[in-house]
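Predict structure. Chain length: 174.
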Amino acid sequence: MYASDPARREVTHAREAYADFGTLLALFPSSQYAPDARKRMLYLRDLLARSELHIADYYMRRRAYVAAANRARYVVETYSRSEAVADALAIMIEANYRLGLEKAANDALRVLAINFPDYPAFDENGDLVLREQIRNRDRSWTNLITFGLLDRPEVPPPIKIEQPEGTEPFESNP
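Prediction complete.
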């Protein structure tokens, strides 16, 4: 069988488990189960953050940019210590850019550049490069039936969001 990403499934029980582990740690911080509960909470926090990112990505594919930006902001605010924060910031940047909110996009870009200078979507100049994806609704029947071999749609050029004027790309101090 194929293993699927648990973050793409229903996360109600994961959210309940996270709350229950939090209650356990609040009531019994020195319990023998406390270290295990902390580890499980870290895993569940990342799972919940990734689940929110999948929803934000869905909104981006549907071109619901306000909803995507709000979901990504929720991940940054609620799961700030999660591994998913960098991807959430990238979604915020793209959604705000597509909405024409350049100041909000640039603010999120600065945060991403400072906190995640090695993010894979940055080019050598520190600019964010986003690849446009071809949606199924933009493909012809011929392309769908031949699994993409015939009648390929043109791939749009990548979007390059440059660092705002007056800011330097983040460089770590030795």
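Summary: The helical segments are 12-27, 34-61, 65-78, 85-98, 102-115, 141-145.
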